[in-house]
Amino acid sequence: MTLSPDRWHAIVRGEAHDPLAFILRRVLWLTQWPYRVGVWWRNRRFDKGRNIHRVSVPVICVGNLTVGGTGKTPCVEYVARLLREHAYMVAILSRGYGAETGRNDEAMVLEENLPDVPHYQDRDRVALAHTAIEESESDVLVLDDGFQHRRLARDLDIVLIDATDPWGSGYLFPRGGLREPRTNLRRAGIVMITRCDSVPVEKLDELTAEVNRIAPGVAVVRTVHTPMALLNGTNQTSVTALAGRTVAAFCGIGNPEAFRATLKAMGANIVDFRSFPDHHAYRREDVDELTGWAANLPADAWIATTQKDWVKLRIGELGGRPLWAVRVGLQFQSGQMEFDKKIQEVVASERDGSGNV
């Protein structure tokens, strides 16, 4: 049996209460144990230094503990932009999840927002690292979604935790969303809590205290994902343009509810919302279906999607209406100076050969 992402989320979060969901939760609970053993064995080998490859330049990793979207792309963009501002030659490495051919959505967004930063994609990120150093003369490598990809040695692990669902329902995959036990957060150099504006401050304080218990001494910073602009091809307008407007939206990302919340925070009156699987590859039939959907919306409705979806569609309108993409950036609530300083210290210490972080 194949579960859709929406159905799987409803089951593991306890939102589905039908008899089949009850049975599937028990089955998924059992199947997490072989996965747990595999994760333990794999990490044990890496902890002993086996099959780890170090390259000649610093590597900064941005990753997470859970499946789905925690907001890694804005963080990768922030780190790469920070390093470029300090005159470092940066390259981004990623596996390329969801890319049937060519680049995936994250790569296309990053290439659009950071045109002077090369982005390499392949399953073998050790080989990618050597390629980036040779071809682009990179001073620093940013490893996107690489916390579990331990073959490539890194000088700093930045681990993102989504404040709205920090531990993936509390279970390992497939019973929950954890890729590995939360105790492995101890490998992190910085923990970034994302979407902090979506939960009460009390919950953030509790989450910070829990992180401190799991990984004593690890720096914890708080961020939000802030809408930066509305894009329509080469056209751009302020995010305030959606305030008070009737809006229909769609997306194919790991956390569609986060996008819905973003639109509501922008003041949009959402009359319809469609979600596709994460990294959805839009086909002609999808565009035709969305065109028909758009044509039947209220006359005053605007259509919005994420930048990750727009870079795959590359169309200016649906059903005779403009299609607006929301560009999102990272904004710190706390810890920005500490975060920036840590990044610069890691790169500077590796560059001068001291190796001290």
Shape: globular
Please tell me how large the radius of gyration is: 21 Å
Number of discrete domains: 3
What's the CATH architecture name of the largest domain?
3-Layer(aba) Sandwich
Mean pLDDT: 91
Class by helix and strand content?
Answer: alpha/beta
Order of helices and strands: HHEHEHEHEEEHEEEHEHEHEEH
Short description:
The chain has 357 residues and is an alpha/beta fold.
Write structural notes for this entry.
With 357 residues, the protein is of the alpha/beta class. It folds into three domains: 5-47, no CATH class; 59-225 and 332-351, 3-Layer(aba) Sandwich (Rossmann fold); 226-329, Rossmann fold. The chain has helices at 5-12, 19-47, 72-85, 105-113, 125-136, 201-214, 256-265, 284-295, 307-313, 336-351, and strands spanning 59-64, 90-94, 119-121, 140-144, 156-162, 190-194, 219-232, 235-237, 246-251, 269-275, 302-306, 317-318, 321-334. Strands 1, 2, 3, 4, 5, 6, 7, 8, 9, 10, 11, 12 and 13 form a 13-stranded mixed beta sheet that branches. The protein is globular and about 60 Å long. It starts with a helix and ends in a 6-residue tail after the last helix.
